[in-house]
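Notes taken during the Thursday session

The instructor put the following on the board and asked us to keep it in front of us for the whole hour. The protein is adenosylhomocysteine nucleosidase. We were told not to look anything up and to reason only from what is written here. First, the residues (231 in total):
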Amino acid sequence: GRRTAIVAAMQEELQAVLDLMPDETRQVAAGREFFVGHLHGREVVVVLSRIGKVAAATTAAVLIERFAVDEIVFTGVAGGLGPDVEVGHVVVADAFLQHDIDASPLFPRYEVPLYGTSTFAADKPLSDRLAQAAAKALPGVRVHRGLVVSGDRFVATSSESRALQAALPEALAVDMEGAAIAQVCHDCGVPFAAVRTVSDRADDAAHLDFATFLRDVASRHSAAIVQALLG
Ligand code: ADE
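Then, after some discussion, the predicted C-alpha cells were revealed:
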C-alpha cells in the first residue's frame, strides 16, 4: 500500500496522532525519531520535524530517501495573514513561497535561485482530500485554500505582519516549514500537502495566542484531520 508521512513541527501538534497508532516501531535517523506503523490500517511514518526550514527540509529528505514514503502531509499551526483568516480557521495550502528568500538583484525578490519560480504547488489530489478531511473532522470551521508563506521567523509584530501582507497580498498564512518541504518534494517528485490551523494573527499578541492555542486546540485539530484523511 501507499506509505504516508505525517509531519508536524512540534510535539503538541502530533501527540494525539501518535496516541492513535497501535503498533509503531521507533527508528532514529538524522537525530530524529521516526514512528513507523499504522493508522486506520494504513502504513504511516510519523515524525516531528522540529522548527524552521532547515529542520523541515532535512526531515523531508530522510522521509523520502530512507523511509521511502509515497506522499507527505504536514499538519500544525500557522499565523493568519489574509484579512479574513482568523484564529481557529483552517488553511489548506495550494502553493508555498519562502518569504525570507532574497537573492536580488541577481534574481527577482522571492525567486528560488535556479528554479525560475518563487512558488511550489501543493499536490492537488492530496490537498483536495486534506480539505475534505478538515471539513469533515471540524464541522462549522472555515477552511481556506491558498498561498502559505514560510520563513525562519516567528512573525510576532503587527508591523511585520502588515509588511508581509503588503508585499504578498495573496498570502493566507505564515509558517516556518511548509515551503521548505514543498521544495524538497518538488525535487524528489513526491506529492505534498499541508493543513494548518490558525493559532494567532502574526501580530503583537501572536506569542500569547500561539501558546494558548497550541496547548488547548492544536493537537486535537491535527489528530481529527489526520484521522479523517486516513479513515
Ligand atoms: N506558526 C504559528 N504562528 C506563527 C507565526 N506568527 N509566525 C510564524 N510561524 C507561525
